[in-house]
Design a protein that fits this description.
The chain is built from seven helices and nine strands, in the order E-H-E-E-H-E-H-E-H-E-E-E-H-E-H-H. With 242 residues, the chain is an alpha/beta fold. It has one domain: NAD(P)-binding Rossmann-like Domain (Rossmann fold). A seven-stranded parallel sheet has the order 3-2-1-4-5-6-9, with helices on both faces. The longest helix has 29 residues. It binds NADP nicotinamide-adenine-dinucleotide phosphate (NAP). The site of NADP nicotinamide-adenine-dinucleotide phosphate has 32 residues, from helix 1, strand 2, helix 3 and strand 5.
């Protein structure tokens, strides 16, 4: 299978790209950092830069690489509420987490429609469902991405183009140091390791569901607590993190 993944220079995306290429799938990854000696095809690309995205699209066309599945994993956690509200940081969160995902949909959807098959996977987060006292841009961009995928799913289901959303709970990756030990391990039992998260994300590639929640138990409990007011939930979760 041909799989295109954004955000393969670290964390879950890197784990997924390695896992799939080891299994013999043709993987093409992108991120901003240089990556040396990776087993899969890799292009340096800032997904917020349309010219760089077009360049990667041209490289894929040249290599006759039309993916069967596209995993939209690149994201940043804009800490735009640490002092006063920082609009620029927040906008960067949207440019990466929302526009930086939908740009690939806009480029690849016409080709998928022509072929009459294809699947897009949005890597979202439980933070799409709760506000964050340190960030406007993360929960808002993930909520927007999840909602965009609901519209796309509704519109393109008859054309056999699939839009799945994966909602992850906490994962031990560099983006959230509160969950991660110095050697990259997980700090709490309810946190997923990046390798386990990659294995779970693989289920969404080969599965048929519209939405996935990983890990199951944590996200079940999380969803059952959605009635708790934000102010109280925020206090409980910051106590748990500290
Ligand atoms: N860790 C968690 O607790 C958690 C929880 C829920 C959901 N998620 C989601 O899981 C996905 C992967 O996150 P992760 O935890 O594995 O974090 P990560 O290790 O920081 O990975 C993020 C990836 O996105 C890439 N990226 C960021 N900005 C980019 C840009 N402008 N252009 C291209 N690539 C860019 C980064 O590469 P470069 O810096 O090299 O560009 C990196 O490869 C994200 O969508 C995240 O929101 C994570």
């Amino acid at each position: 299978m041909k799989i295109f993944i954004t955000g393969t220079s670290s964390g879950i995306g890197l784990g997924l790209a390695k896992l799939l290429s080891d299994e013999g799938h043709e993987v093409w990854g992108v991120a901003r950092r240089e990556m040396k000696s990776v087993k899969y095809r890799y292009s340096v690309c800032d997904i917020t830069d349309h010219a760089q995205v077009s360049k990667v699209m041209a490289e894929m066309e040249e290599a006759k690489f039309l993916p069967d599945v596209v995993v939209l994993g690149s994201a940043i956690l804009p800490k735009d509420l640490e002092g006063s509200f920082d609009y620029e940081k927040s906008a960067q969160g949207f440019a990466t987490n929302y526009d930086g995902a939908l740009i690939w949909v806009s480029k690849l959807l016409p080709k998928f429609l022509e072929r009459k098959s294809g699947k897009f996977i949005a890597v979202s987060s439980t933070s799409a469902k709760r506000p964050d006292i340190k960030s406007v841009g993360l929960p808002a961009s993930k909520a927007a991405l999840s909602m965009a995928f609901r519209s796309l799913r509704l519109r393109y289901r008859p054309d056999n183009i699939k839009f799945s959303t994966v909602f992850f709970g906490p994962v031990a990756t560099p983006v959230i140091p509160e969950f991660t030990t110095k050697d990259g391990g997980k700090k709490f039992f309810f946190v997923l390791s990046a390798a386990k998260a990659a294995k779970l994300l693989k289920k969404a590639i080969f599965g048929n569901r519209d939405k996935y929640y990983f890990p199951f138990l944590f996200t079940c409990i999380f969803r059952l607590t959605l009635w708790i007011p934000d102010r109280i939930y925020s206090k409980i979760s910051s106590k748990l993190k500290s």
